[in-house]
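Minutes, methods subgroup
Present: GH (chair), OT, SY

1. OT presented the first of two proteins processed in the latest run. Sequence and structure tokens recorded below as shown on screen.
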Amino acid sequence: MLKAKGTKRTTLGAAAIVALGAFGLASLAVGDVASAAPAVTLPNARGYELVSEVEGPEVYPPQGSQLEAEEPDLVTEQPARASVRGDAVTYIADPPDVGGNGSSGLGSGNQYYAARTANGWSSTDITPPATPIGATGYESFARDLSLSIMQSSVQPLLNAEPMGVAGCEDLYARTPDGALHALFTTTQTEGLCGEPTFVGGAEDGSHLVFDTAAALLPEAEEASGGEHANVYDSAHGKLALVNVLPGEEPDPNATTGGPSGTRNPPALSNAVSADGTRIYWTDLGSGRVYLREKAVTRKAVTRAVSTGAGKFWTASRDGRFAFYIEGGVLWRFDAGSGPGGERTVLAAPGAAEVGVQGVVGASDDGDYVYFVAGAALAPGATAGSCKLAELIEGGGEEEERSAKEVEQEALGHFEGRRCNLYFLHVGGDPKYVAALAPSDNQLPQFGGTQFGDWQPDLGSRTAQVTPDGQHLVFESRQRLTGYDNGGAAFVQPAIEIFRYDATRATSPSNPNCVSCNPSGNPPVNEGQEGNGTFLPVSSNKTYMRRWLSEDGRRVFFDSTQPLASQDSNGTQDVYQWEAEGTTDCPEVSTLNDNGCLSLLSGGDSPDRSHFLDASADGSNVFFTTRDKLVQADGDEKMSLYDARIGGGAPQITDPCAAGQCVGVPEPPPTFPAPATGTLVGLGNVTPPTPTPPKPKTAAQIRAQKLAKALKACHAKHDKHKRQTCERQARKRYGLAKAKKASHTTTTRKGGK
């Protein structure tokens, strides 16, 4: 069974304090080395570091779970992401007292960039000031946060060079000097630019790809809108049309990657290669998948990927291999094999069997892939329809039978409907992983978005593969181990998180449950359909959060379940599961869990803690919480923390007491200049030195925030949404909010 373990954090000495500086503080005091004493003993010699500013703007938790409908006034859909190394993170918070766009609450807020240096974490507001609420915002960030993409309908936009097209909504790349460079500057129809959407780019920023219905070049034709669009590559100061057929004829009925088939965004997983020279797109008229290579050069060429109507799912990181489904068959296209490329069948169900339904993920090199099919393609699998039970109306025995089928599937009894999950090493035969239910691809929703293990949209997918393809993490309501996730009080079996290890594929305890209670007791019902355990999705179509470390040994997730003895608040906390065989989890067992479970957030805050992201190696885990995990965090606002391996530094309650300050505080770190390229790096706009504002009372601050929030509500055209928005604003910033500050000893269920 799982072991709830951890390693005690080492306390730094005075010499180390002087060397490191105080994380989150401007200066240190000699002799005052008392650090915060959280109740949690962190694993892996982790230490808490306060990332957001001390007594700074309130941080907004990321939206991305089926439970966030309970607190829509606080969460945000705007992008938040950690750098691949964990030395930087971008997040959303209230605007500062000086600067920013004044947009607060209800999914608004300003975008911040925090970087970790030898002097600690320092945050910078990177939202252009004085822009209308909702008119400007970031769409995506690169893996290392060296590149950011901003959308704005404001023309001209502050620091933009060159200026965008007058009257148009434009996309901008933010450069190291803080300037904003428009991705396009011309259009064939004055003032008509469609609604440009960033869909991917080269890792060094040399190619930036976006969709829009507008004709921005003479050779382009205006698209009909909706999913139908033109695809453009902005590179090296040039704009090129991507959706060009093999005969060099423009095709305005296109989308980058593959269409989702639902209301979710399209499949954009590696649709643009790491160097930007290969871009996969789909003709929505014929359904054929195409590859455009070297779009901005004279050597540009388009090749057909599928022979008929197909569905693009993902590609290798370099774009050489693409995985797509055509006629229920899973194919791999090799762009490196001759002028026409080479197509290989990976999984072909029989004529009477249900074909491949979706791709869960693939390795970076394209040699390994995970997919779902109704057919029995390997020993251990049983054929099923992989079709969700639906309640029909019509009366009589047919309606009664359908009602029973819906009820049975909700209880996990889905015989005849199963979806088989497979692992495949290209060149070999599929290996059976587990039997999932169709409902595992239609998990609880928010905002009309559908979640699931094989959703085409990266921002809605609840499964992830390591870069080497050897490990997979996914969600399911099915009882895949001996653990009882049913619970008689639940409407449906609880969602649990599972991990598959391809290196021990023959093990009977594979996959194993990483979120099951170490005690063996079934989940506790807190009045919801599930048990509140989930992998929080990114809600961003171009990237996923890092729930799984790149070596596959650590999994990070949120849960309302008390999975550790230190978790006493009865609400959502952040957890880590770690595979056995390490210093912190040395025991190797043959039981079905094979790992150690640890609490990462405080475990005693009456408000939810939310996992935000992690570094690729899992050494940095970022989360939001109201818990005071370091002494410097002296307010009750939501803050951003990093549970960092080898991290943590003593926090000083009074750094200059008795004149014991050490030296002069270092200035905030600036964003480094890029090593190569002109569109690499976030940049840093240095704000003017503000005059210290007169302190505001708590009532004045609430009134100001309420006014700003109501202003944002008034911009909503839908009457119902506007009324709901206003109601939530008054709930958050009205009298009820004023009383909330006195609840410090009150424990609330479910974060309410």
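2. SY then presented the second protein from the same run.
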Amino acid sequence: MAATDFKFISPGVFINEIDNSQLPSTAGNIGPVVIGRSEKGPGLVPTTVNSFQEFTEVFGAPTPGNLNNDLARNGNSAGPTYGPYAAQAWLRNNSPITFVRLVGQAHTDAVDPTGLAGWQTTNTDPEPDGSQGGAYGLFVFQSSSAATPTAQLAAVWYVNSGSVALSGTAVSSSTAGGTNYDEATNQKENLVGTNVVFKASGDKEFKVIISKDEGETTEIETTFNFTNSSEKFVRRVFNTNPTLTNSDITDSAVLENYWLGETYEDQVALTLTTGAADQYGVIIPLANKFDYFGGDFRIDYEDSRTGYFISQDLRTGDEATGSFDARDQTQLFRLRARNTGRWASRNIKVSIADIKASSDVFNKYGTFSVQIRAIDDTDNRPKILEQFNNCNLNPTSENYIGRKIGDKFIEWDDEERRYREYGDFANLSKYVYVEATDIVKEGKANPEFLPFGVFGPTRFISATAQSTIVNFNTSPTLLTGAGNFYDGSGAAAFAGTDTTLVSGALDVTFEFPALRLRASASEGNPTDPRDVYFGVDTTFNRQGRPSVTIGDYTGPKPGEIGSFTAVSSSGIQTENMYVFTLDDMCNTDNTNTTELTGTNVYLSGSRQLDPSERSGLGYIRGDGAYQAVLDAGCDKFTTVFHGGFDGLDITEAEPFRNTFLEGSTTQTEFNNYAFNSLKVAIDSLRDPEQVQFDLACMPGITNNTLNRSLVDMCDDRGDAMAIIDLKGGYVPETENTSTVQNRLGSVASTVNNKKNSLQMNSSFGAAYYPWVQIQDTINGAILWAPPSVAALGAISYGQATQELWFAPAGFTRGGLSANNAAGIPVVGVRERLISKDRDKLYEANINPIAQFPAEGIVIFGQKTLQVTPSALDRINVRRLLIYLKREISRIAATLLFDQNVQATWNRFRGQVEPLLASVQAGLGLQDYKLVLDETTTTPDLIDRNIMYAQIFLKPTRAIEFIAIDFVITDSGASFDD
């Protein structure tokens, strides 16, 4: 303080206290980044969480693998998710953590087909006899249902080779004859066939034969039904685990050739309502002549989305008569899930509620609420996960839907290897963001517009086959003229003239399932019928009980067919399952009085009808305005998310298994989608201004190329260290079919791989050996985990209990079992290391994880991958340098664009020296020296706008070797000598 700063008025002694010992504020905790698979969450986007509870909310709980689950319906849980276990290990003692969820993304220049994401059956090109694999659909109908029966898709089988056929009593044409033919009933017994109509053997019951190759070898022959409580229920008797078809990871003794995919038991219950004598089924290959095959899902990951929400019809009187089509209403916005893949379409739905028209003549924008709900709730007991009230469509308003929920999103640029961000408003929802149409974002939409309806998910259009009868005198012919099915011969399919099934019926319409819409406010016995949600009924008319089949309706479309927009072309055609609008609401009180006393009902297409045609419907709007619908209590509706896909191969227990990442030839981002996905995950972390972390790991990945890439990324940044898992050790059962004895690995093979193949010399990486056995704290399962999981936990423990520059090893900070330093229970090691093994590993810069009889399991080393001897070949020193570089860089950044003068230099010294002193006091440094004066920042550098400082450090070394001499003396010796 200068003397002129004192206020001298009368004589006296003036004293001031100046405290230069204050420590500079440090940035918040940084934490590690972990790359791995998880149940849900944003795909390939670095996302930071601050607690394990938040992690499970965003990414789901860790999965131990080998769960006895319906994988085809519920998602892959066959392989352990090591990444979430690593996150749990860190978050036990520290926070935050950044997680990058792995999903499947092919490079824009990917080689077809090996570089494409997703999956396909081994063979996808059915021959005319339906013998070459692909997807096979069972369609069911009852003959008394209509003059032209509608056959609904009931189940889909995916077959690598061979075929799926029905067996039993088939219905023939009047020209059929021969053995087993009953002329009176036009039926033939003991037949097997694809594209052949069979009678049901019981109520909703059929018999299927699945062959391995051209019908010569029977894979399975079984009777099944669509009754959930039955032992013959379709999802109980057929394989629903796609990984059992993968010969690379499944032993031949249990190898399957097929799996059961989607089933629509709710739809079957609504279709087959009479006895078995009136029920029929036919299996058809789901393919057509336009090179589309139902067993081909080679597509990138997709976020689930709703269809577009549409406006109300503002016309009054009879203007809409004959011309109204909900599909022509103005599209306003849709919601896109922030959870990549199918999780959102299986677990959440969205409701628009509290729709209100404006009563302000100066502000015509109405309001509405957006509710994110659990898909298994009911309207009587809604589970609202998030709610955004008083939303509007005014882009300049604080209540604009895009502003209240958020509309930002990012897209990966393969050329620049980075994400580009789009949108205007930060995402405030955990589950969704808004995709508004240009007309709304630009403020060009009619201010009166409100979300009054919504487009549903897409499905394939119906197809009609001429006659339901096959002529058995020749080979069964396949469907023709049906846009969604295989055209094998060009002949008229089902070309019989029999009318036995139902009088006058020669055609059957083959239809793909659609979600059910609520028809009446009275469904489900609501407490208040005027307070129900119309739109999608996720209970599927089960009187309030949630349906488990919804996720099968909302999956992606195969091949190159878009899942979000209906297409009409000469090839594949799709349509929306529904286009719901409140404009079609009616009331059972058909007097159209101002005080409706009846029940609100939804009758699709009622607005388009002539007033005379709907006079008995109780059409709510009548000739009036849309407000009448809202006044009648029809102010809320529900829709679902659909089309999400994780881009992974569902036949893999571990889609990123190392044996797939290596292959028989050199794997790159162009010929291996999993390799590319990992490269995207690593490259998304390269910019330190976008993502902050000080450790990085991708547990379970042992590919040398990818491990080098991870370490190089950390080295390039200079502010993080990678923990990698090495090839040569234990190989989990998700990698191949070898016996456990052949999958154990060894110290020698791990060391050889490190020296001869990985060939790294960097202090920005570290590795450990061997794998450890951990206990899942959620369900108690025991599993083997890669050593990086335990290492990350131990580093977290050491940092929390002492300082990050203390060695994360030894019995105090590396005691995995005694001290629970791993953050999760470690109960065993894959290999018990003897002293000679530990020596070999340490000489190769691999840190041993040892097990001792008394002390338990402990990390017994802290070397980096730097081969060159220096202080930086130890983890504690490297982490110390990372910490100091980050903190001092942060201090220096506050001086940018200040004057390059002594006062500025002093400010820098005044902040850096207390920081170094605190580290020294914490035993991180033996000594230090900061030089910043005219000898470092010379006049020449000043002229070039450079401030140059030098910091000399003497890091404290950890004790790794203790030598003690025990000297035996004679009885006359003196210890004082």
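Chair's summary of item 2: Confidence is low (pLDDT under 50) at residues 173-181, 466-506.
Next meeting: continue with the remaining queue.
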